[in-house]
Design goal:
single chain; alpha+beta; Aminopeptidase; 3 helices
Length: 146
């Protein structure tokens, strides 16, 4: 796996296309969720891409303080390509994402909005649930903090 992290304005057109394509494939089509993915946060974030040869296999959006949460950095749009699931890339993706957040912004608390069914996955990295279940775009979510 080749991990690349870039701010938005350094993404190539192909990288941006592959990110949008994967986010649409998983969040819109697979999860049958109609939502506004282009939320004006991408331009303020770093984008962590895991390339398996020429395929975008894993991706997260690394979010600085003040963009998603007033006092916390965050990790969002966590995706493993359906072709690469059960490969361990998801766990590697989260480890690399956490480390990259600390590298970019220091070892500060990380807050996420997690899909409820992934609670145990995020707990395996030390995240703890800090909110009740809430609906976001028809999917149960919880806030978690590391």
């Amino acid at each position: 796996m080749n991990w690349i992290t870039k701010p938005f304005d350094e993404l190539t057109p192909l990288e941006l296309y592959k990110i949008i394509q994967l986010r649409n494939e998983v969040f819109v089509v697979e999860q049958n969720c109609v939502f506004q993915d282009a939320d004006d946060k991408d331009q303020k974030c770093y984008h962590l891409m895991g390339w398996n040869e020429d395929r975008l296999a894993a991706y997260t959006r690394l979010v600085p303080v003040g963009v998603s949460y007033p006092n916390y950095i965050s990790i969002g749009r966590v995706i493993t390509n359906p072709k690469d699931r059960r490969s361990g890339f998801g766990k590697e993706l989260m480890r690399v994402s956490i480390d990259k957040c600390y590298e970019l912004w220091g070892k500060a608390p990380i807050k996420i909005g997690a899909q409820l069914y992934l609670k145990n996955f995020y707990e395996s990295f030390g995240f703890q649930q800090i909110s009740d279940v809430y609906d976001e775009d028809g999917i149960d979510h919880i806030e978690m903090l590391l």
